[in-house]
């Protein structure tokens, strides 16, 4: 039962990132409130207010109809304009920065709430207008409901002004990178905090039973809570074979486990067990930084590469991207290359494979060296990044230091081979000399 609860909870978290989630919820609330006001009008709330507080009631039928009709037409125009701005934002972000940033922009909660306010107000005004019905030679006048509609429309206009301000900020590359950085930093810090700071030897899993993927797609997320519950229930040890975010082909192993189902189970319980284990993995065609911090490195790197393309030629944005990457790498250095889930007794139940620091640094630097090695300003910034990372003595494990030095050598070789100006070469060599002073003599910066 807990396994299904965890799966439902994870599904709700994914649903929250969809652009239509909050607008749908708020629209439903607006519709329910409209019916609630119709009920209050049916028991005479407007009649009571006319007698006791007439200022709170619009008591002219033509005025009420004109106001509500104007509100409905204006709200439709505002919604069309707002959705158009969102589409322009997404198109520009995809063209100028990276298509990978789109899920983060679509899941912007503030924009979703604003669009929901528009739609809720529109539905409220429509049903309030419909509730003005004739009774003999008179009309049933929902005067108080019309006043509420005026308040909702004022709120919608304020939301529209805020939406224009927000969308103008969201389209700026620094804002996009800052949001990516903060989400990734939060995810990384949470992983580091939850990580057991003890050395653990996990068993060799090469002979364990394998569970094959039954679908194709990116491994978006794994419900660790659901896997842990099954592992504790059946006394299993589990290894997650692929790295989160990897593209999974049908029929390749995604999980390995050691152990047998608990006693008093049905004969086909092994198949049931493997089915439950596989249900804990979510496959998707999109990724979120909240689920996979590696995506932030990809997105910021792609923004930097796009900025260095001949069509855009914006080295300033590339330098800003390197600043964000520097801090993210420094945080990543505080995390181990292998992650585990521990039970209450401190025993490792689940081995979670992650991208090693060495591989992550190489992938980022391989792309930056390819497209930015000709720009001496960007090269200097990369050397400054390495200098900062080598100074993080508390997090600088030996294998991390070796990976950094390898990339310094690669950057030096590419930079020198792509610069013929003596002044540029002198700058490169001066940074190499500075970096040598940060390391013991047994490390060489020669290829």
Automatic annotation (TrEMBL):
The keyword Electron transport does not apply. It comes from Winogradskyella epiphytica. Keywords: Membrane, Transmembrane, Transmembrane helix. InterPro entries: DUF2254_membrane. This is Putative membrane protein. Pfam families: DUF2254. The keyword Transmembrane helix applies. The chain crosses the membrane at residues 20-40, 71-93, 113-132, 144-164.
